Every structure is written in structure tokens, then in C-alpha cells.
Structure prediction request, 251 residues.
Amino acid sequence: MSRRKDRFGRRAGEPAGGDQGAAELRTQRFGADFLAADLTGKLRICAAVTFARLHLVPRIPAFLAQHPDLEMEVVLDDRTIDLVQEGIDVALRMGRLADSTLTARRIASGRSAVLGTGAYFARHGVPAVPGDLVAHRAVICSQQGGVWTFRRDGAELAVTVRGRLRVTAAEGVRAAVLADAGITIASEWMFAPKLADGTVAAVLTDRELPSVDLWAIFPAGRTATTKARTFVSFVEAVMTARAAAQPGSAG
Prediction:
């Protein structure tokens, strides 16, 4: 069985710098040939609640069907947990990696947007420029804070939004937005079904917001198991197919 490894986790032509670049230099990449592995035993993974509910858990039956002798345990947690202490084989995390010592592989990159329901915009209007956001009700994710930074033509503009509602977990942010409580900045992954059916709309799309990377994180000091690598290749294939099905979307 082939076990090819690439020293570099970044795509061709991508710059590497700081902690993010150092983490990417330690990234392990594994070929799709691992999908053919005969897997047995138990695979324990960890992922953020909303992402897993929308994009991961519905696909797990297909993965298990490919590997009938494998069992899986899925830990859903938005917090950064100790993978070694919790016995996690691989964790899926979104956003920037603060710890440059992690063994990580970036498997997808998704677009962020200012999002709200049609009902909210019907009552409060649609912001035409970032400055209009100060007059809107923001649902603020505590982990991100209330400063939203936009970029266009190489120039950045930071807007401090106002909101009476702060939520510590993405699932709560999503629920609040869907209840017409306000607008938020989030990965389009988080609202994919509601964007597709028109319940939620993205605004200020002529501005660029920071993208959201999806990372596979392996426990430090351990060689990634074949089970973990095979599952990561499966998730990458799922996310690649999703991106291909949505032209113009980064993820």
C-alpha cells in the first residue's frame, strides 16, 4: 500500500509565514489511494457542532459503508480540546491555527459573508456599504468579536458593529440569525442549506472578507493512523465535490 507524504501543506504558489506558515510546513498530505484501505477497529474524530451537523455527519454512513469493519465515534465540540488527552485520532477545525506546533493539513477553504434572513432585511433594509452596518443589529460570535474587516482593491476597512446579542457557539449564532435576530459574519458553510433555499442572503458581496480554512489536526507526537488519513481524504473529496457543484464558491 502506497504511503506517499508531501512535506508541504500549502497549495502551489501560496506564501507561508508566521505561525500559519510554520503549521503548513508540518502538514502531511495523503493520496486518495488511502480510500481503498481495509480499515478495522475504532476511529475517534472531533469536529465543530454546526459544520459536522450540516456537512459531516450526513456523509459518515457512506464512509462506513466503504469500510464495514470500522466503528466511529464523533465528538462534537466547538472548543479546542487536547487531542491526546481525549484520545482523538483527528480533529476538524475551522479558522486560523494559533499553535504553530500542530501537525495539520488544510483540506478546504470556504468563503465568509455578511448574512441575514430575507425577513430581517425586509424590516431593517439591506446595507449598501460596510458603514451601513453600524445601524444594523449584529449577532456577534464571541470568538470573533465585533470588528468586521472588509477588503476591496487592496484597501481594508474595519467596521465596529453593534449588537445586543453575543453567542459563544456557532450553532447559537446560526439559530439567532434564522430567528431574524440580526445579521452576522460567518462561513457560507454554516448556512449552506438556507442560502440554497433563499431563506438567508449574503450582502455586501462586492467586498472581500477573510476566508475560512478547514483543517485536519492530528495529535502531536504521534504518527497519523491510516484510519485518520483515510477519513481526511474522504472529507476532502466531499468538500471538493461540494465546491465543484457550486461555481464561484470557494467552498
About this structure: DSSP finds seven helices and twelve strands in the chain. The first helix runs from residue 18 to 25. Residues 1-35 have pLDDT under 50 and may be disordered. Residues 18-110+212-245 form a domain with the D-Maltodextrin-Binding Protein; domain 2 fold (CATH 3.40.190.10).
